[in-house]
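Incident log, structure service

09:12 report received: a user says their structure output differs between two submissions of the same chain.
09:20 pulled the input from the user's history:
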Amino acid sequence: MKPKTIMIVDDEIHVNAVVGAKLRGAGFSVLSARDGEEAMNLINQGTPDLVITDWQMPRMSGIELSRRLRTDPRTAGIPVIMVTSRGHRIPQSDLDGTNIVAMMAKPFSPRELLAKAQEILSRHAPSSVHDAEAA
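09:34 re-ran on a clean worker, output below:
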């Protein structure tokens, strides 16, 4: 069985490295991007099963990335975990029209992020995401 793919999108290199190592250690395939534009380019080459993105990044924010994913039929079913700096609250109006299914505050425990990713992937089976696209 092919491992599930998780994309990490964060402009902080150490976050990509630490989270990527934790996810790979749990058997996931990992893609990394430094901002939303780079993520969209990678997603156009292959669809991940889950995206973990920072909110505030240069060139394209995590909110904008999630909105773009939601509007494209090929990526509309990809769930997103949004990571944001502690104390930053994202208004519900900004979350509307996105794929964001969970929020976590930085700093976060890589173990807790892994558990959240596993929980979300168990609820959003790849077959249901891709079958919904075909329907």
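09:41 both user submissions now match this output. Likely a transient worker issue. Closing.
09:42 reviewer note: The domain at 5-134 is CATH 3.40.50.2300 (Rossmann fold). The longest helix spans residues 110-123.
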